[in-house]
Amino acid sequence: MSKGITSRSEDYSQWYNDLVIKADLAEYAAVRGCMVIKPYGYGIWERMQAILDKRFKETGHSNAYFPLFIPKSFFSKEASHVEGFATECAVVTHYRLKNDGNGNIIVDEEAKLEEELIVRPTSETIIWNTYRGWIESYRDLPILVNQWANVVRWEMRTRLFLRTSEFLWQEGHTAHATEQEAIEEAERMLDVYAEFAENILAVPVIRGRKTENERFAGALDTYCIEALMQDGKALQAGTSHFLGQNFAKAFDVKFTSKEGKLEHVWATSWGVSTRLMGALVMAHSDDQGLVLPPKLAPIQVVIVPIFRTEEEKAAIDTYVDHLMGELKNVGVSVKFDDRDTQRPGFKFAEWELKGVPLRVALGARDMQNGTVELARRDTQTKETVSQEGLSARIESLLDEIQINIYQKALNFRDSHITEVNSYDEFKEVLDKKGGFISCHWDGSVETEKRIKEETKATIRCIPLDSKKEEGICIFTGKPSVQRVLFAKAY
Amino acid sequence: MSKGITSRSEDYSQWYNDLVIKADLAEYAAVRGCMVIKPYGYGIWERMQAILDKRFKETGHSNAYFPLFIPKSFFSKEASHVEGFATECAVVTHYRLKNDGNGNIIVDEEAKLEEELIVRPTSETIIWNTYRGWIESYRDLPILVNQWANVVRWEMRTRLFLRTSEFLWQEGHTAHATEQEAIEEAERMLDVYAEFAENILAVPVIRGRKTENERFAGALDTYCIEALMQDGKALQAGTSHFLGQNFAKAFDVKFTSKEGKLEHVWATSWGVSTRLMGALVMAHSDDQGLVLPPKLAPIQVVIVPIFRTEEEKAAIDTYVDHLMGELKNVGVSVKFDDRDTQRPGFKFAEWELKGVPLRVALGARDMQNGTVELARRDTQTKETVSQEGLSARIESLLDEIQINIYQKALNFRDSHITEVNSYDEFKEVLDKKGGFISCHWDGSVETEKRIKEETKATIRCIPLDSKKEEGICIFTGKPSVQRVLFAKAY
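ok -> structure tokens follow
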């Protein structure tokens, strides 16, 4: 099969688009900026959901569901929140269509809403308005709730998974009696995200805090995990916000403390989205197609038979039945591609494109020799191995592939963190190498904005593990006490 | 605790509302007609989802995701479809808010959409528009896709779970090469729903077909499952539609058949929604609270300790640790309610209200005797049983409870199907007894409408298993060949 994928070196951005479409992950919908997530892509997202959902429940959270629509007035109760979201909102103004008498369907102007409704871009406002009814005393706290939902942010420039007008996500919204407990929650969920990114997505991440300029609208502190893509650009893969008492104050949510005092509740929110699909594709894949970590691959092993006669086919079928049974027993997801409409070479290319971690091919000679050909997607290597003990070998190979994919991404990331001490150096590294640039910054919003204007690089985060170090800001020469990470970002 | 639930005999409708709210299943949101599904209610819905999703995958379906918004023009391409949905649609007309300069947030009139977007009330149109790009030849068929999503139908009179402006559901949308295959699919999914309703929800259902008047807008045939609530009203619990080639024609979706001919594709769609939560509550619960079938109960067993001293508590704790370990090992979901802020009697009432199938209570004397008190929610019976073999006993009791709840609902349903042969009899049964009324009908939309106007009863379905039987229509005296089921319905 002709894959029709642009190479990364030729045009990275086009490579990404080609790959997402050719590998059947998603496509643009007829509605501007929205996407259709196709079954193969959705299968990966479902795996992400299931694993994250388990993690959320293990850390004490329950799922719930809040309305899609938010009254406009709610939305403006938290001043910085409305500023952050007002310019990209879908607004519902009517609740009925009608026939205009000439056979045209038009909006029925008599069915105008008294108050416009905003399609949720995020749910802090509607949720905190609801929490007011749930919280009276410290005994009602903490509330540890998560929601899996669709949200809408009207984006002018969209890219499949990375930036779409509608996307799928989860948003955790928790309520606490103390500041300390809320901060701990925000940090705990950042750790959940980081562990997930590294062990499941196989994407190494840097845990950090956002600067004031990059913070979530309405947060006192935004924690984030930042990943690096193969083109040297960073991608924010998840955020966890300490919201202080901002939303509790905006929605008048108070509780009686153990000491009998009436106090405002402390809040966090945290989320990851279908953007992770973009991170997954861009972190690992190559010019031949997707490279999926086994823990997320909808199909972990594909088996392709090679035969000339019905007799040969029958022998292979019998063996494959047996092998598939063994693999399914140990929880390996396996597909037998016995289509008679396509040749083996076509199938090899197709499963390579779709990122299946392991391919088993076997023909008549293999059956005689008691062997199969095993091909790894991540290293593009093949070997002939014995049928004996094959399922155990496959199991351990899948683990090895998961680790190898992570290690490869880690090596790339680590070799793309560059310390610089001057603005000239900064610009040179940004231009020629990309990646994260570790440097001193004077801590002002103004400096950050000017660097962004001049170079398009932003402060991705102030790493949580960064040591205090005296230095001077590369841009203003003012004193600084620790390095931050700049990068161009998705 | 005071439960504050109206009794069923006093006001069935109020009983339902009280119960949904007091048992923490859901509440009305600040947005008209929308609901908040609370963690306990959502926990039940999640179990429904997981079980249905497994069934869908076992029957060959994959999940995918299509956009929330549908361009207005799409919506009107299938004539009967638009008629069915136009009068209850949320319409997005703008994509931005702004500050009016006086600190008020208003809709930015400069950000008006060229074409209004409809928030999906169902997704046939956007999906069939997408399928056009996926289907070229018979090799691309069948497409067996399901979507879990939120939909919006602007309802004027709403009731929690039963009828809300936004609700959660799944919608299957399949594409086939032949009429026969599509009909088989629609029937297969009806069977999946019926099996789920009976074995999981413990709600007996009648499988049938809708009359022309009650059909889904755009379907050639609508299959349904109809359940009976305790007040004698019917509830449609799931539908599966044979759509013929209607949507393929509206969206120009053709395929090349094996014989090389260009033909329109055949379609089905099928769905169940959070409405099932309402059916679950109304079918089984009583004046004391919810009665949940064990297969859906988020907590299957609650353990309540009764003690006076710390020493007594310690002994109980040790035993409970052991019991919980055993129960979790066999997959029983169990909660130890050791709150020290509430008395045992309060806890008993609370878990009764929340429908936990089995309660284990144990005090100092039980510890001496090696016993516990076991209380069943469904029969409201208690017995003292040995601690020996308790977890096995609990496991089998949960199975027994599941069956008993179903049997009780089945007995009620079966005793509420009444055959009548005259309109007077019809009206009398409808008034005094309710339930399903089996009678002859002349097959005309006109007659059905007139009976509905006069009695509020509608034809719930033409049962799939009904025998041909000569008769005369109770309303017009015209000839009829089989009985249909009338009822008042939710």
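Chain A touches chain B through 62 residues (CB under 8 Å).
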